[in-house]
Design goal:
single chain; alpha/beta; six-stranded parallel sheet; two-stranded antiparallel ribbon; 39% helix
């Protein structure tokens, strides 16, 4: 699949996600890792979206943000929100695509539908299909890159939940094939493939710095391989500094 972008043209990209993409106080975020990688490979890049913050993890309040990035030197615009499911985002994505005009959506959603909303994989697929249709209504030529659900501590100790995650990942792939069109292609980023919760999260769910690299790499590999944007992410992964544990502790 060839790139729709000649060299030098700006690639407008919107990351749509939940807490895994939003990040929290002290994180670099996988958004940062992807941005730095693409810029290193000469991509003229504009991250777009309605937000630019992190979740303020040191407070108990839900929905408050901060900008305490480990390194704020990147384009921090995004469309990710702590706790976000497909079943809510599907009702808002058309307006966001219309307002922010992304060429590409990089989407990593669905775990909250299965966990917090207790939706079945079938229900989650229906929400995904509604989401895709709505996103395309904002831009009929939109290119979508859908990330697979990641490993979590819960999946490791709850076989039923693990089976639901696996079944939704299967449905994510079949749905992308069903709804793919030449005008608006849908491709899969295998974000789960190199991500192990015990090694790549700080709390069993949310990526640590090593986890950020692996999520970014999956999207980078797909953008390069499917759309000719940038280059695959180099392996082996570098060892990078971690966020200090104190940065994640609630303020009493």
């Amino acid at each position: 699949m060839s790139s729709h972008h000649a060299a030098g043209n700006v690639v407008n990209l919107m990351i749509v996600g939940d807490s895994i993409s939003h990040g929290s106080s002290g994180d670099w975020t996988w958004r940062y890792r992807l941005y730095q990688h693409l810029r290193t490979h000469g991509v003229n890049l504009d991250f777009v979206g309605p937000k630019n913050d992190l979740d303020a993890i040191t407070t108990s309040q839900v929905g408050d943000g901060d900008r305490a990035y480990a390194d704020p030197d990147f384009d921090t615009d995004h469309d990710a929100q702590w706790g976000r499911p497909y079943c809510l985002e599907m009702d808002e994505i058309a307006a966001k695509v219309s307002a922010h005009r992304p060429d590409y959506l990089l989407v990593l959603l669905g775990i909250n539908d299965l966990f917090w909303y207790d939706h079945t994989p079938e229900q989650n697929e229906a929400s995904l299909r509604t989401f895709i249709t709505a996103a395309r209504s904002g831009n009929p030529a939109l290119r979508l890159v859908l990330g697979t659900l990641l490993d979590t501590h819960k999946a490791g100790v709850d076989p039923i939940f693990n089976a639901r995650v696996s079944e939704f990942n299967r449905r994510l792939i079949t749905t992308s094939c069903d709804l793919h069109t030449p005008e608006s292609p849908i491709v899969i980023a295998a974000t789960h493939a190199e991500f192990v919760a015990s090694a790549h999260t700080w709390d069993g769910t949310h990526p640590n710095a090593q986890g950020e690299l692996r999520i970014a790499a999956a999207f980078a590999d797909t953008l390069a391989g499917q759309f000719g944007i940038g280059a695959p992410y180099p392996r082996p992964f570098p060892t990078v500094a971690e966020v200090p544990a104190a940065a994640k502790k609630l303020i009493a």
